[in-house]
Amino acid sequence: MSEFEKRVREIEENASEAIKKAADLDRLNEIRISFLGKKGILTSVLKSMKDVPPEDRPMVGKWVNDARAVIEGRMEETRRYLEAEKQNARLKAEEIDVTLPAKTKAYGHRHPNTSVLEEVERIFVGMGYEVIEGPEIEYDEYNFTKLNIPANHPAKDEQDTFYITDDILLRTQTSPVQARIMEQGRLPIRMIAPGRVFRSDEVDATHSPSFHQIEGLVIDKGITFADLKGTLDVFAKKLFGPDTKTKFRPHHFPFTEPSAEVDVSCFKCGGKGCRFCKGEGWIEILGCGMVHPHVLEMCGIDPEVYGGFAFGVGLERITLLKYEIDDMRLLYENDVRFLRQF
Ligand code: DAH
């Protein structure tokens, strides 16, 4: 065996030995550079080729190339092995212990107003009503004029209403949705319209500059006050319990004639009179009436053919009643410790 052949064999063995011992991919790369790199040990053999007689050079070249192939093969094998090992180590490190107790999540809670609104919607949808919404920023015309509320009406005063311009305002009631839906001319109508309303009121236990109402409107042929009474009686019984009685007291609203306010028998004392109903036995819950013929006309409906009833409920009012909360401000503070009770 020639000097050269021995040297190449030795290099091959040394490289194989080093590769076998390589503990990681970095080390393997170092080995590659030191044996096969431009200034590597094996390459240096080729560089000393000038000392080899020309006729032996192809032979030496072949040994070197064979050795390179063997070393590269070993390296590839080891590289695969080390990579698999690295991957396994990572999988092991990232292993999830599914038996650990789960982290608790803080869930929110339905606001009592939302729960009551959903209940009211369920009751009316169950009677075939549609739920629709109108704009919170409204024209004076819809909020007042088309509802038969004259220019000198106290509700129009700046003390009560937030005006944006002379004829645009934050709606003071959900009743303008009545005019909007009637104008569309698709009859009959059976709808409720819940939403936010605004009045220039100081905050106290029963007032807020922003609160919610639920408007109701039915327009069809042959609707009578008996339909209104029957509907609202069913509503009160479903919301406050089957023993609830209703009482209709004459009242005035510009857009209904006749108009009434509805009281329910106190569901705390059953009507005998207690602190909850302030000794009255009755609690007021809403306003209602038969839609005024002039309102129908202004909205393009012939009052000789069609008629109907309307009602407006204060959402906060019935929420406070239903959950026996005595201060409206609690509904707006959104303290979860408070909300969680309902
Ligand atoms: N919009 C009235 C208010 O805010 C409530 C109301 C009363 C609505 C009678 C009606 C109704 O639809 O018929 O005080």
Helix content: 40-55%
Q: Helical region count?
A: 12
Q: Mean of residue pLDDT?
A: 93
CATH fold field value of the largest domain: BirA Bifunctional Protein, domain 2
State the low-pLDDT regions, or none: none
Give me the secondary-structure category: alpha+beta
CATH architecture of the largest domain: 2-Layer Sandwich
Q: Considering the protein shown, what is the CATH homologous superfamily of the largest domain?
A: Bira Bifunctional Protein, Domain 2
Topology as a string of helices (H) and strands (E): HHHHHEEHEHEEHEEEHEHHH
Ligands, deduplicated:
3,4-dihydroxyphenylalanine
Evaluate the radius of gyration: 43 Å
**Strand percentage:** 15-25%
Number of DSSP strand runs = 9
Q: Tell the overall outline.
A: rod-shaped
Reading off the top of the CATH hierarchy, the class of the largest domain is best stated as Alpha Beta
Task: Tell me what the structure shows.
This protein has 342 residues and is α+β, with helices and mostly antiparallel strands. A hairpin with a 2-residue loop joins strand 6 (246-253) and strand 7 (256-265). Helix 1 (3-21) packs parallel to helix 4, helix 2 (25-36) runs antiparallel to helix 4 (57-93) and helix 3 packs antiparallel against helix 4. The protein is 42% helix and 19% strand. It has twelve helices and nine strands. It has two domains: 3-93; 112-339, 2-Layer Sandwich (BirA Bifunctional Protein, domain 2). Bound molecules: 3,4-dihydroxyphenylalanine.
